[in-house]
C-alpha cells in the first residue's frame, strides 16, 4: 500500500491533532482522513484562556496551513533568562530576534483562538472534500484495537483504518503512567498579570530557588494595558503561593522578577496543576502513532510541549508523503524524531530536577553557565535555533 492512499484516523482535536489533520489533508491528497474527538462540534472553544508559547517553526507551520490567528497573538521579540537572586555578575542570557535575523523568536496566544481557527480550517476542508475527509466530534474513542495490517477505532461504531494517530494528551495528574514517568513534586501556578514599563514582546525566564518563573508577553488589553501570562513553578510540599492573597502574590512576584520586567500592577486569579514527566519510549506502536502530550508530557520550564508535538506531526506527514510501505515510513518517523525528541526530554528533565537539588553552590554554577553562554555567540545561536525550530 502506498501511504498517500491510506485511511488515517486522528484521535484528538486539540492543536496538535488538528494541525496534523490539516497538514495530511493538504500533503496526502489521496489519503482518507477521519478526525475523532469527545468534544461536541457546537461547543465554543474560542474563550479558553490557557496560554500557549509557540516557537517560530510552529508559527510558520500554522501560517502555511492558513490557520494562524495573528491578531490574537503577541510576537516574542526577545527572551531574557536570569536567576533570582543573582549569584554571578552579568549572569543573564538575552536572545533577540534581530540578533538571530528572524522576524520573531515565536509568539504567545490563548489556546481558544488557536483551536477555533484550526477547527474552522479543518471543517472547511471537510466541507470541500466530504468523500475523503470526515469529522467525528462528540464521539469519544473507547479503544484502538490492533489488526493484522491496520487498526480498529471504536467510537461507538467500530471503523477500520490503516493508521491511527493519537493526539489526545491531557495533563500530568490525569494521565495513566507511561514507560518514563517522574513526579517532580512541583506545582505550576498559572494566570495573567498586568504590568507597567515592561518592554513590548519580551519573555522573561527567571530561575528561583523554588523553581522557574516565566512571564510571556500577551497582546495589550483595551486601553493599552500591558499583560503577560505567568507560569510560576514552586515546590508542592512547601508551596509559598497557595496561602497568599492577590496582593501578597503581587508583592512576592515583584521581588522575584528582574528590574527589566517592569512593575507588577496586579495578579489575576491563578490556577494550579501538578508537574511531571510522562513519556513513551517510542512514538510508534504497530500502526498507532502518538504525538504531542499523548507521547510526552513535559515540565513547562522550556516551553516546548506543543512545539514538540507539532514537529512530530510534520515529521509523520513528511514520512508518509515519501511513499513506500507504511511500516517503513513509520520506522523513518521513529528514527527521524529521536534526536529532537530525546534532546528536548533530557534537557527539560535535567532543568526540572535541578530545582529539587540542595547542593551548595548550585546557584553559582548555574549563574556562571548563563554568563558563559551570553559571552559565546555561536553557542547562544545554537540554543536559539533549538528553541525556534528544534533539532533537524
Describe the structure.
There is one protein chain. By secondary structure, the protein is α+β, with helices and mostly antiparallel strands. It has a domain at 3-45 and 114-178 and 278-354: FAD/NAD(P)-binding domain (3-Layer(bba) Sandwich). It is 32% helix and 30% strand. It has 8 helices and 21 strands. It has helices at 15-27, 56-64, 111-128, 246-256, 305-321, 326-354, 362-375, 377-389, and strands at 7-11, 32-37, 51-55, 74-76, 78-83, 92-96, 106-110, 133-137, 143-147, 150-154, 158-161, 163-166, 180-196, 202-207, 212-218, 226-235, 263-267, 271-279, 284-285, 288-290, 296-297. The strands form 4 sheets. Strands 5, 6, 13, 14, 15, 16, 17, 18 and 21 form a 9-stranded mixed sheet that branches. A hairpin with a 2-residue loop joins strand 19 (284-285) and strand 20 (288-290). The protein is globular.
List the secondary-structure elements in sequence, H or E: EHEEHEEEEHEEEEEEEEEHEEEEEHHHH
- Helix content estimate: 25-40%
**Going by CATH, what is the homologous superfamily of the domain at 3-45 and 114-178 and 278-354?**
FAD/NAD(P)-binding domain
Proportion of residues in β-strands? 25-35%
Number of strands: 21
Low-confidence stretches: none
Could you give a quick summary of the protein structure above?
This protein is α+β, with helices and mostly antiparallel strands and 392 residues long. 32% of the residues lie in helices and 30% in strands. It is globular and about 60 Å long.
